[in-house]
Task: inverse folding
């Protein structure tokens, strides 16, 4: 799987912070007069604008209401990841340097894949209602309390309230409701790989074994991923180049 969603990936946020720091340092110390007129910068800007254009085009094709379209951001994610949907903040991000190496078709696949994750979380809030949805996002584990959850502060409640308002209620007995319940169950099983990696109570060999098992059983074949890949595959068949 090429596309790694960093919905639980704390280290990606660290990478982002480090990169911004470096850029600032460079600008202040060594190249204070660096402007946007350099050819590489213009090319970069053009590429990002192209991605934004394709993103909006795909959103229109799948009828994703403009009011609840997640903000698209560019960031450096590190090795082997094209982008992700931050389900807490309700934002989509892509690594433009990574995307540049991909074919147009693969980029469309990656965008559509992430947009399916958006749809999954939109469905969850529409069916659960904002209160239960926030509880689910804050702590998948029934025993954890919202107050102690680090995720709780990061949830963009305003965004999800808007989603709930715009999309209306999903009945749990309807076909869409049944599908949404599958999303919820899969979300509960979605592995927190970073947390696992940071564990100090088990030896490295055991950690690697658990990690490999989690990656194969609970990430690659997690219904949220399978569903997103399926949606992207179907979409590509009918997609006309823009
Ligand atoms: Zn995914």
Result:
């Amino acid at each position: 799987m090429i596309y790694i969603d960093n919905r639980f990936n704390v280290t990606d946020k660290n990478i982002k912070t480090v990169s911004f720091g470096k850029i600032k340092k460079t600008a202040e110390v060594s190249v204070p007069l660096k402007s946007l007129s350099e050819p590489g910068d213009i090319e970069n800007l053009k590429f990002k604008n192209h991605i934004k254009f394709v993103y909006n085009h795909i959103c229109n094709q799948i009828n994703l209401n403009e009011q609840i379209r997640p903000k698209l951001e560019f960031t450096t994610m590190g090795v082997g990841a094209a982008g992700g949907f931050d389900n807490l903040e309700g934002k989509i991000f892509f690594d433009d340097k990574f995307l540049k190496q991909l074919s147009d078709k693969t980029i469309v696949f990656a965008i559509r894949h992430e947009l399916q994750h958006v749809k999954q979380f939109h469905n969850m809030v529409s069916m659960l209602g904002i209160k239960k949805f926030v509880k689910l996002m804050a702590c998948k584990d029934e025993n954890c309390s919202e107050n102690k959850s680090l995720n709780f502060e990061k949830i963009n409640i305003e965004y999800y309230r808007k989603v709930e308002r715009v999309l209306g209620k999903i009945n749990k007995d309807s076909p869409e409701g049944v599908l949404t319940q599958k999303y919820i169950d899969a979300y509960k099983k979605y592995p927190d790989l970073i947390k696992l990696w940071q564990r100090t109570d088990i030896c490295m060999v055991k950690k690697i074994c658990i990690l490999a098992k989690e990656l194969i059983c609970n990430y690659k074949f997690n219904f949220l991923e399978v569903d997103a890949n399926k949606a992207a595959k179907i979409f590509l068949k009918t997609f006309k180049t823009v």
About this structure: Residues 6-32 have pLDDT under 50 and may be disordered. Residues 104-128 form the longest helix (25 residues).
